[in-house]
Design a protein that fits this description.
Length: 400
């Protein structure tokens, strides 16, 4: 056996399949993604893409690198940023803009002005609010694209990182049933009907097993990065040519940025993606941060205030960096109030309706507001209830 053959066997015998789709025939339209993966931009934005890989496999780098390369052609983009990892992209994107809850462009401006929008999903108070904003923006893109004459339409890529988080198959505590369904419907619409309008979803997620097979089949380009669980490797085997046990072990050992790319014609390439050009600010806590923060701190443990937790209530699950709030179905939202931005007072009212025993201190901790604010809102609710309401909720009247 030759030395080359031994190396191939050690790597799981994964050999790239040469494909005309992997390298653009016109260098002027090639996306510089990897040495052996430089597809024609029109091929990629018309076929859509889905990428899988565990944390640290290089998905975030791929999101940014792809957005940077597409940006060279001034195409509109909507980059849904869950962890504020892509804000530095606006330094490279020609029409790049960071959008927030209170500063967000319309779908009309995205398509008619060629905007590359990094949507900061953490700027909304809750996942429910952010999800409703996503649904609204994507629906606006559909409305605008359908109103355009076919010859006036331009491609627009919608990139969703953490797709497994935003498009879960099962119910989750951070999204109401109606909102979860609305998200699933709008991305299904993108995958099935968006292509004819120039609207193309690029989805990135950790686990292939958490995504329905129909969604994977609709993506023309599949990127399979490192996986470690047998269930995900088994799903990979459904798409990889001759996925032997040696190949599965090779995938488990993939370094950051290495992947198998499966193209629309069924061919596959083993690629090492180029690094992004924009700055990647890591949000993963490091040991050095603890040393810098606590090593020189003077602390009197005997003076530390300690709480009685014998009767602690169970708070609403929080999402990363977001305040907890009780979720209501859209039909239950008070008329005339924004569904996506509940006021602190309204959230306190909702909590008290669910549990009249909450104290002002507990309410302040759950909502993330000063205790006196919670106390005022609590008394205001009691004052505005008529006698009949008090009879219906005796616990609330007694506590007030």
């Amino acid at each position: 056996m030759t030395q080359t053959a031994i190396k191939r066997q050690a790597a799981g015998n994964i050999q790239p399949h040469h494909s005309t789709l992997a390298i653009a025939s016109d260098p002027g339209k090639a996306l510089q993604l990897a040495e052996n993966f430089q597809p024609d931009i029109d091929t990629l934005v018309s076929e859509s893409l889905i990428a899988f890989g565990v944390k640290g496999s290089g998905k975030s780098n791929l999101v940014a690198r792809t957005a940077e390369q597409i940006g060279r052609y001034f195409l509109p983009q909507l980059i849904l940023d869950t962890e504020r990892e892509y804000q530095s992209l606006i330094n490279l994107l020609p029409h790049g803009i960071i959008a927030t809850a209170n500063r967000c462009p319309s779908g009309y401006d995205i398509l008619h002005r060629g905007l590359q929008v990094v949507l900061d999903l953490r700027s909304w108070e809750t996942d429910e609010a952010a999800a409703l904003a996503i649904v609204q923006l994507v629906n606006e893109l559909f409305t605008v694209a359908m109103a355009q004459a076919p010859q006036d339409r331009v491609p627009c890529v919608i990139s969703l990182d953490e797709a497994g988080y935003w498009l879960p198959q099962e119910s989750v505590p951070y999204l109401s049933k109606n909102t979860r369904q609305a998200l699933a419907d709008v991305f299904h619409r993108l995958a099935s009907r968006g292509r004819k309008l120039g609207l193309t979803p690029f989805l990135y997620t950790q686990s292939v097993s958490e995504v329905v097979k129909s969604s994977i089949r609709q993506a023309g380009v599949k990127v399979l990065m490192r996986q470690t669980l047998d269930i995900d490797l088994s799903r990979y085997a459904e798409y990889i040519h001759n996925c032997t046990p040696a190949r599965r072990r090779a995938i488990q050992a993939f370094p950051q940025g290495k992947a198998i790319v499966i193209l629309p014609d069924g061919s596959q390439q083993v690629v090492q993606f180029y690094p992004r050009q924009s700055t990647h600010t890591s949000h993963t806590p490091r040991t050095q941060a603890a040393l810098a923060k606590f090593a020189t701190m003077s602390l009197d443990l005997n003076a530390l205030p300690l709480r009685d937790m014998t009767e602690a209530s169970v708070p609403q699950q929080r999402r990363r960096g977001h305040k907890a709030s009780e979720l209501k179905e859209p039909s239950q939202v008070q008329a005339g109030k924004p569904k996506h931005a509940p006021l602190i007072r309204e959230r306190i009212f909702t909590l008290l309706q669910l549990n009249p025993e909450y104290t002002s201190r507990q309410l302040a901790a759950l909502v993330g507001c000063p205790q006196n604010t919670a106390q005022i809102a609590r008394h205001e609710l009691c004052d505005t209830r008529d006698q009949g309401s008090r009879h219906e909720r005796p616990g609330l009247s007694e506590q007030c």
